[in-house]
Amino acid sequence: MRMDKLLANMGFGTRKDVKKLMKSGSVHVNGEVVKEGKVHVDPEKDLVTVFGEEVKYKPYIYLMMNKPQGVISATEDDEHETVIDLLLYEHAMYEPFPVGRLDKDTEGFLLITNDGQFSHALMSPKRHVPKTYYATIRGRVTEEDVKLFEQGVTLEDGYETKPGQLVVLEQGAESKIELTITEGKYHQVKRMFEAVGKKVTTLKRLKIGDLELDSELELGTYRELTDEEVEILLGKQKA
Length: 239
Known about the structure:
Layout: H1 3-9, H2 15-23, E1 27-29, E2 32-33, E3 48-50, E4 53-54, E5 62-67, H3 89-92, E6 97-98, E7 107-113, H4 116-123, E8 131-138, H5 143-151, E9 165-170, E10 174-181, H6 188-194, E11 199-208, E12 211-212, E13 222-224, H7 227-233
Parallel strand pairs: 7-11
Antiparallel strand pairs: 1-2, 1-3, 3-4, 5-7, 5-13, 6-7, 8-10, 8-11, 9-10, 11-12
């Protein structure tokens, strides 16, 4: 990898900023001063330092975001704010993308990464990674609904969903529920409730696989996942 690209990717500014930094003699590779950005280094093997501090190369980032309503799950959009717009430069420079999507008016747990294999492993229909949602529902959610969801419901277009685990937290004119599903069809949670004559009024994703949304994350904020959390998502260890 070119030296200037490595430093730019690791947050040392634009290519112009990096060029100025290197000309100052502050960048060393294996103890030798390097002033030319075109010099190639192996970030896995070479020791790169800036002002004496080691630059630890990180090819991938994994972020947990508490997505707010009104923001779309996309990398760019001409009309609406995207989840990528909420990132600091030090993370946005990795050119990450959302793993799957949450509707514009849905909030909660969204993963963002630049690791295509990680994204595919979580989104692959073959893996059936469960996702848990909290929702408020206009109408009384009954035990009959619970049983219907356990069997899978038929959506308006004729698609029959896989079984879903519906837990009724509060019944009334407005009910509160948690629902775990293993697929992610367009507007699926809303369409499942429409199929039983009810309407979702608010929706929040709480959990992906065995990993729960960090309760300390305010809406619109995010943090990097730990190595252990990445492994939990990939099913390599239990939560």
